[in-house]
């Protein structure tokens, strides 16, 4: 008996929990503070313990920043041309911008909110991928399985099983993005072993030590995200 091929959506990650304006400002101050951080030697050391990043607010009393396509949320953008890059993120190198998630286009009525890193040369992405890469900061992100379903407790209908993805010991997840004018898009790459059971693509997750590389001319060497230790938790 042959096996069927899972039917995945062309796009992915249409929902994440972001950070407030104040938290983004704090992140920028931390990232441009000048203290270097050693690169992790193994996935077990893939953490942000060297930084004083803001911890998540209480889930019941805190204000969640839920980001969906067309949402306007704070994004970290460089003040320099990413085609040239910088040696380090000095004070003033990053700033906060409130941008709308998704690129508009004449040929698609819906915003295009994901950008494959392998498609950097496509006309819609080319200028942004070369000159205007940015950083998306979030607490966690969601993805729906292409094959697994469950019964909704609210409607009683069969729905796709959704998962919440986090990284142990990392209160903030950095994701590569691009921007133009008032819009931004999330960059994705091939899924690693942690993500592949749910979806064949994953966000381009960056360790803090990789941010200057992402914002510089050699960003393509970050396409392999096999070392990122994602944890998946089913959403009920």
Describe this structure in words.
The protein is mainly β and 236 residues long. 10% of the residues lie in helices and 36% in strands. The chain is built from three helices and 14 strands. The chain has helices at 21-31, 123-131, 211-214; strands at 16-18, 65-67, 72-78, 94-101, 103-105, 108-112, 114-116, 133-151, 158-166, 173-180, 183-190, 201-203, 205-206, 231-234. The strands form two sheets. Strands 1, 2, 3, 4, 7, 8, 9, 10, 11, 12, 13 and 14 form a twelve-stranded mixed sheet that branches. A two-stranded antiparallel sheet has the order 5-6. The longest helix has 11 residues, at 21-31. The radius of gyration is 18 Å and the shape is globular. The two termini are 33 Å apart. Residues 1-10 have low confidence and may be disordered.
Tags for this model:
236 residues, two-stranded antiparallel ribbon, mainly beta, 12-stranded mixed beta sheet
Sheet/helix structural class: mainly beta
Overall morphology: globular
The description of the largest β-sheet is:
12 strands, mixed
**Number of DSSP helical runs:** 3
The end-to-end span amounts to 33 Å
Rg from Cα: 18 Å
Helix content: 10-25%
Strand content: 35-45%
> Got a strand count?
14
Element order: H for helix, E for strand: EHEEEEEEHEEEEEEHE
Mean pLDDT: 87
In the predicted model, the low-confidence regions spanning at least 5 consecutive residues are: 1-10
Structure described in brief:
The protein is mainly beta. The chain is 10% helix and 36% strand. The strands form two sheets. Strands 1, 2, 3, 4, 7, 8, 9, 10, 11, 12, 13 and 14 form a twelve-stranded mixed sheet that branches. A two-stranded antiparallel sheet has the order 5-6.
């Amino acid at each position: 008996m042959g096996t069927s091929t899972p039917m995945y959506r062309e796009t992915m990650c249409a929902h994440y929990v972001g950070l407030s304006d104040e938290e983004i400002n704090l992140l920028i101050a931390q990232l441009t503070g000048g203290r270097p951080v050693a690169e992790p030697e193994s996935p077990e050391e893939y953490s942000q313990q060297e930084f004083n990043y803001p911890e998540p607010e209480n889930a019941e009393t805190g204000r969640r920043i839920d980001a969906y396509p067309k949402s306007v949320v704070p994004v970290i953008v460089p003040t320099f041309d990413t085609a040239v890059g910088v040696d380090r993120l000095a004070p003033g190198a990053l700033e906060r911008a409130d941008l709308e998630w998704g690129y508009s286009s004449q040929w698609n009525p819906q915003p295009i909110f994901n950008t494959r890193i392998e498609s950097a040369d496509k006309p819609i992405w080319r200028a942004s991928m070369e000159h205007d890469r940015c950083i998306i900061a979030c607490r966690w992100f969601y993805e729906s399985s292409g094959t697994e379903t469950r019964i909704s407790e609210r409607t009683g209908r069969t729905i796709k099983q959704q998962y919440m993805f986090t990284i142990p010991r990392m209160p903030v997840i950095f994701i590569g993005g691009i921007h133009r004018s008032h819009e931004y898009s999330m960059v994705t790459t091939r899924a690693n072993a942690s993500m592949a059971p749910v979806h064949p693509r994953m966000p381009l997750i960056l360790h803090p030590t990789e941010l200057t590389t992402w914002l510089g001319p050699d960003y393509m060497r970050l396409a392999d995200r096999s070392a990122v230790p994602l944890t998946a938790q089913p959403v009920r």
